Amino acid sequence: MSRRFLIVPGYGNSGPTHWQSLWEATKPGNWSRIKVEDWDHAVCDEWVAAIDNEVRALGPDVIVVAHSLGCLAVAHWAARHARAIRGALLVAVPDPSAPAFPRAFTVGFSAVPSSRLPFPSIVVASSDDPYGSIGHAQSCANIWGSEFVDVGAHGHINAASQLEDWAEGYQLLQRLDTSALAQRTDSR
Fold it and tell me: What UniProt keywords apply to this chain's record, in alphabetical order (predicted)?
């Protein structure tokens, strides 16, 4: 893959042992990461602007790779800007009403956007994610028009899940890339 990828981490950013960081460091392609002022005090408007700036710079052939709060930021960005991109892998969508959600340190991420995403997407969920139930993730996938993948019990699908470079997730990314290309070719 020599594609362009945009990483949209979750609250606190993704540390060096998170699969997003490992992909950025080791997988082929042009990888970028959004830049925000303060990863520990997340403001939705700031994250949406950061996504939009990066997408405009990278162009429509980019695939967004989002985790946790980053998934909600991508959904808000899509609802506001509706820019065409190649696709999005949305991993561990959090539920703002879940007890573990860091609501004291986030602004503007609720309510979850309820419009179909204007690009191909896959929502990936874990059956024991403390930040969002499998039912919540399935509901988001249905609303957003996303493919839904349940990867079993992997917690929040983050560094604590000990997935290392998460080969299963990277295969999903490759599948998304291939299916997005097929959809573009079919629509010509």
Answer: Hydrolase
The mean pLDDT value of the chain amounts to 92
Residue 25: how many CB atoms within 10 A of its CB?
10
Residue 187 CB neighbour total at 10 angstroms = 6
**Residue whose entry in the numeric block shows the structure tokens 């990867």:** 151
User: What is the SS3 assignment for 155?
Assistant: coil
Token pair in block for residue 101: 């959600």
Contact residues for 6 (Cβ-Cβ < 8 A; gap 6+): 32, 33, 34, 51, 54, 55, 58, 62, 63, 64, 65
Query: How far is it, in rounded angstroms, from Cα 149 to Cα 133?
Result: 13
**pTM of the entire predicted model:** 0.93
Domain containing 118 — which CATH number? 3.40.50.1820
Q: With bands split at pLDDT 50, 70 and 90, how would you rate the model's confidence at 180?
A: low
Question: Do 89 and 56 meet the contact criterion of CB atoms below 8 Å apart?
Answer: no
Cα 34 to chain center, whole Å?
12
Task: Kindly calculate the radius of gyration of the chain based on its CA atoms and give it in whole angstroms.
Answer: 15
Spacing of C-alpha 10 from chain mean position: 8
Structural domain total, the chain: 1
- Domain of 61 in residue numbering reads as 4-186
**pLDDT tens per residue, range 56-92:** 999 999 999 999 999 999 999 999 998 889 999 999 9
